[in-house]
TrEMBL record:
Residues 167-265 form the Acyl-CoA oxidase/dehydrogenase middle domain. Keywords: FAD, Flavoprotein, Oxidoreductase. This is Isovaleryl-CoA dehydrogenase. It comes from the Eukaryota. It comes from Cladophialophora psammophila CBS 110553. Belongs to the acyl-CoA dehydrogenase family.
């Protein structure tokens, strides 16, 4: 990963060209009025933020101020993908925040991308807003790291420009978290193509994506020396004449679809394979720590959004002739959530900085994802409780946050698998599964 400072000029340029640039001379305190809601709990002058992180924070908060809670409520009800938010991010160059400058990106680090994802979620868009751009931010890291020059030119530039959207197909119905047992197969046809057969589940944004990054077996499990071998990674057109895409009705984040994919005799050109045949698992693992950090940042944003709404309501709502927030039974859980979220935030940005500096193992990224998703869930639950009956009404938004707060606890990896990782890799306890 390039240093966060590299490519700074590109983001700076995009920022100046965007409608945000005119605010750059305002003191940080004043910029809170741009979108005070977003910056209520994590001010732009956060002492541990670098200059580039502050700029990202302010720029993203400004874009998000166009999309109030009512927008996200409407999207949740209509189940429509937020194409306008995606287009705004593409227009101002933010989809390429981690992509090398050569392909239109800004070549910033995960430390900046985490600020961006936290802010987009914190604005009230939650996991819906974050997921609508998430895959495009870091999903193509295997291409950046292992793709040929021709593939990078062909794939990265349209992704950054927002003209192509990507989805990510790893999870399968029969194998779940046991990725090494994936059953979908790609078989060479002897004519420069592979024929793909199998299924995927939970593939998010497959309803609107033109492209898919997909991991499948090219050598059956019983014919490889190690289970991590024999899986191959492809980035290719999502050919809807061969891939049946069925939307899954789900608890939250309704505007960003998740799907079951079923494919039969799907011809994929070998030119769309990334890296060597059989090396796919290694390549997919490469981006996983960064993805966990970004999901953690998204969860943090959701938690802060819930806390913001809860505090506001607790100040305004008067029962027994005083604001309910004057009762410690309301105030203390919210204050405790702020402490939990801030603690998690320190871990998220520590993990991000370490990642950018080349730290490769996953204990901090996993710990960050664990802490942030649990803290966010607790904050959302308390926000609903602080609203009393109105917490159950869609109009007050916190019920939507609570539904969305389940997601970072489950995906892309569960709490149990994180604890398995820490138990085994950090504490050197026997492998439990
Ligand atoms: C809304 C949503 C969007 C998603 N988007 C995508 C996407 O775009 N692309 C994609 O590829 N995937 C996606 N996923 C899939 C997600 O990554 C998986 O759901 C997740 O990895 C868990 O896999 P599973 O659901 O099969 O759970 P399972 O593997 O069936 O596990 C079920 C439960 O058992 C526990 N468990 C299993 N084994 C162990 C063990 N050894 N020790 C302790 N506990 C264990 C797990 O922790 C979990 O709680 C998405 C999921 C959701 C819900």
């Amino acid at each position: 990963m390039s240093s966060p400072r590299q490519g700074w000029s590109c983001v700076w340029k995009a920022w100046r060209q965007s409608s945000v640039g005119s605010f750059k001379t305002l003191p940080y305190r004043q910029t809170r009025t741009l979108h005070a809601q977003t910056q209520e709990y994590l001010q732009s002058n956060q002492p541990d933020f670098t200059e580039s992180q502050r700029t990202v924070r302010e720029s993203i908060a400004k874009i998000c101020s166009k999309y109030p809670d009512e927008y996200w409520l409407e999207k949740d009800n209509s189940k429509e993908f937020p194409t306008d938010l995606h287009a705004d991010f593409a227009r101002d160059g933010w989809l390429g925040i981690c992509i090398p400058e050569k392909y239109g990106g800004a070549a910033l680090g995960i430390s900046e991308a985490a600020v961006m994802m936290q802010t987009v979620s914190e604005c009230g868009g939650g996991m819906t807003a974050a997921s609508s751009i998430h895959m495009n931010i870091f999903g193509l890291e295997p291409v950046v790291k292992f793709g040929t020059e021709e593939q990078k030119q062909r794939w990265l530039t349209p992704l950054v420009g927002g003209t192509e959207r990507a989805c990510f197909g790893v999870t399968e119905p029969n194998t779940g978290l046991d990725t090494l047992k994936l059953q979908s197969m790609a078989t060479p046809d002897g004519d420069g193509n592979y024929i793909l057969n199998g299924s995927k589940i939970w593939t998010s944004t497959a309803q609107i994506a033109q492209k898919i990054l997909i991991l499948v077996r090219t050598t059956p499990l019983n014919k490889v020396d190690k289970p991590s071998r024999g899986l191959s990674l492809f980035y290719t057109d999502l050919d809807r004449s061969k891939v049946q895409v069925t939307r899954i009705p789900k608890l939250g984040r309704a505007a960003v679809d998740s799907n079951v994919l079923f494919f039969e005799n799907w011809k994929v050109n070998a030119a769309d394979r990334i890296g060597k045949e059989g090396d796919g698992f290694k390549m997919i693992m490469h981006g996983m720590n960064a993805e966990r950090i970004l999901v953690a940042a998204e969860a943090l944003g959701l938690g802060y959004a819930a806390l913001r709404r809860a505090s506001k309501y607790a100040t305004e709502r008067v029962v027994f002739e005083r604001p309910i927030g004057q009762n410690q039974g309301i105030q203390h859980p919210l204050a405790d959530s702020w402490v939990q979220l801030e603690s998690a935030r320190l871990m998220v940005y520590l993990a991000a900085r370490m990642y950018d500096q080349g730290f490769e193992t996953g204990e901090y990224a996993n710990a960050a994802k664990y802490l942030a998703s649990e803290a966010a869930f607790t904050a959302c639950e308390r926000a609903v409780l602080a609203h009393g009956g109105m917490g159950y009404a869609k109009e007050y938004h916190v019920e939507r946050y609570l539904r969305e707060a389940m997601l970072p606890r489950l995906a892309p990896v569960s709490k149990e698998m994180i604890l398995n990782y820490i138990g085994e890799r950090v504490l050197q306890l026997p492998k439990s599964y």
